[in-house]
Specification:
This protein is an alpha/beta fold. It has a single domain, classed as Carbonic anhydrase (Beta-carbonic Anhydrase, Chain A, 3-Layer(aba) Sandwich). The protein contains nine helices and six strands; from the N terminus they run H-H-E-H-E-H-E-H-H-H-H-H-E-E-E. A six-stranded mixed β-sheet has the order 2-1-3-4-5-6, covered by helices on one side. The protein is globular, with a radius of gyration of 20 Å. The relative contact order is 0.12. The protein binds zinc ion.
Amino acid sequence: MQKLVDGVHAFQAKYFATHKSLFRNLAERGQHPETLFITCSDSRVVPNLITSTEPGDLFIVRNVGNVVPHVTVPGGTAAAIEYAVEVLKVTSVIVCGHTHCGAVNAILNPETMDGLPFVKRWLAQGERVRAIVAERYSHLDEAGKMLAAVSENVLVQLENLRAFPNIADRLERGELAMSGWVYEIASGDVFEFDPVIGQFGPMSPPSIPPPKVWPGV
Ligand SMILES: [Zn+2]
């Protein structure tokens, strides 16, 4: 606990002290995040750190296994999705899974949830992921199945998102972009789903500002 108290003081003395106008603007003008970022509660996944973003940039929903419950199931995740889309008018939604995910491991190995009734009930929503892995990836070893499950879990959540009428509307009108990511803890790499080839691949290279064109050149 003392570590956190010291951390608060360090935040105030360093980051806050050098970003006062950012915080003043956020307080006075409210939040206008462009992205709804849905990820796992895992302590090793730190959205602002891995995306180099500032306070106010990401509207974050975290839960065990970065799950988007079916649209008919009310709850905190559905409320956050509705608020992000209807009120904040985010223009992108990212579902970010990660390697070594305990939730995905539990989906593949339900016996690890014995004695954890709430976890078991929550991750019953992962049944579809378990079925996909059993059907398509049974030839892989345990590590391969785990990686496949992490990736398929992200895709299932993107599908669940499309079932929200407001999301479907915005996608159709081109007002919303949706991406599936997998963050690899050991390397810091982020893999993005490419719907054209139907696979996850390394994230596209950073955008480079266009070269300046001088008059007369
Ligand atoms: Zn996780």
